[in-house]
């Protein structure tokens, strides 16, 4: 099997290392009860090194693509410190 030549595509070894680092936990929005597994909480996900978020966020790898793409699913509300999903970010709890 040929190794990927695209810079954004991880090698087989990188995929294995990434999988070993992360234990999937479940994010639950305190506003709408949306739930989804996440791979990382923070501002600099190691599987997407070119990204620097401005606040800690719940991030999952994009399940619909290969490579190092990701989806931000939510964050902690700065007002009340509750988990809110991306679609609830503009609402007050």
Secondary-structure blueprint of this entry?
Layout: H1 12-21, E1 25-28, E2 35-38, E3 40-42, E4 57-61, E5 70-76, E6 83-85
Antiparallel strand pairs: 1-2, 3-4, 4-5, 5-6
Protein name: Cysteine-rich DPF motif domain-containing protein 1
Domain Cysteine-rich DPF motif: 27-87
InterPro entries: CDPF1 (IPR042426), CDPF1_dom (IPR018785)
Give the proportion of residues in helices.
10-25%
Largest sheet composition: 4 strands, antiparallel
Count of discrete alpha- or pi-helical segments spanning 4 or more residues: 1
Multimeric status of the protein: single chain
How do the strands line up in the largest sheet? 3-4-5-6
* Spatial separation of the terminal alpha carbons: 50 Å
What's the β-strand tally?
6
Q: Which term fits the overall shape?
A: elongated
Structural class: mainly beta
* Strand residues, percent: 25-35%
Radius of gyration: 15 Å
Q: How do the SSEs run, as a string of H and E? A: HEEEEEE
Q: What is the mean pLDDT?
A: 78
Domain unit count: 1
Task: Tag the structure with descriptive keywords.
93 residues, mainly beta, four-stranded antiparallel sheet, two-stranded antiparallel sheet, 1 helix, 11% helix
């Amino acid at each position: 099997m040929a190794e990927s030549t695209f810079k954004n595509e991880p090698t087989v070894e990188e995929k294995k290392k990434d999988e070993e680092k992360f234990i999937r936990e479940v994010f639950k929005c305190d506003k709408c009860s949306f739930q989804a597994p996440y791979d990382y909480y923070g501002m600099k996900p190691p599987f997407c090194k070119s990204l620097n978020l401005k606040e800690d966020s719940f991030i999952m790898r994009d399940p619909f693509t290969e490579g190092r793409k990701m989806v931000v699913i939510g964050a902690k509300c700065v007002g009340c410190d509750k988990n809110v999903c991306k679609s609830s970010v503009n609402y007050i709890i």
